[in-house]
Design a protein that fits this description.
Layout lengths: L1 H22 L5 H20 L15 H13 E7 L11 H11 L5 E3 L5 E6 L3 H10 L3 E4 L8 E2 L6 H4 L1 H11 L10 E4 L13 E6 L2 E6 L12 E7 L4 H15 L6 H8 L1 H8 L1
Parallel strand pairs: 5-6, 6-7
Antiparallel strand pairs: 1-3, 1-4, 2-3, 7-8, 8-9
Helix pairs in contact: 1-2, 7-8
The chain binds iron/sulfur cluster (SF4).
Iron/sulfur cluster (SF4) binds next to loops.
Amino acid sequence: MSNIKQNLFLALGYKTLGIPIAATGLLAPWVAGAAMALSLVSVVLNALRLRKLKCAKPSEHPKNDVFVERSMLMGETIKIAVTPVIQGGGSLFTPEQFATIGKVVGTDAKIEMTSFKQLYVEIPLERREEIVASLQQSGLEVYPAGFVTKSLIACNFCKGAEEAGLETARIVNKAIAGIETPTPIKVGYAGCALGTSEPLLKDIGIVKMRNTFDVYIGGEAKGLKAVPAKLLVSGVSEEELPQVITKIISFYKENAKGKEKFNRFVDRITLEKISANCL
Ligand code: SF4
């Protein structure tokens, strides 16, 4: 700042002196020209002194904490979604897995339990690969957060792994979790018709009916007017199920208007058209 003030003084000083003298006719033209040139040279030489100044290192910054916090806000942290594997008994973490999460993400990390059975964990971007590898080694699954298809929100498989289709649920989860979508997509899974209320409030609901599956779409849980999903198709085989669900998601991705929510998309496009394109 002081350098700028000095330059202002140098530029104006020559003119403040020179113009009144020139007005009296006592200043030779060559002297006026030389004074003008000298004014410019002195301003440039003074400005070049700035090159010798050093910026303070972050560690020397008087408000170091603010500096770090600001750089984090500028995108140096990232959220990841962490879940246990789909298993009988619900979303079960082991004590070791919780200990690993605490150890690798550090004491300052933000950890949020979402309504769709994922832990959102905020981590430093530059440590992402190392942290994800440690979490996966402890048996946890890691997915992107944000505008993606969430990992499958499955029931507790109380009727047994085989009868409730645990392996099928895992295969569907592998096929869909993390697919980028215009808005977040939640897919619910019930291993029998007794537990249908939860999947029917999701964007896509899968219900196991004896040896086949029913697929519902367009559920909406938010607000006072919750909307149950509508039946899209019955009798889908175990082999067909992952493909049917991924086709519905792809069709939504390709045809949604901007960030159109899935249930609004279903209302606009209609069940008939979605059925004709995805089944
Ligand atoms: S949906 Fe059926 S199998 Fe799954 S937890 Fe509920 S009752 Fe048990």
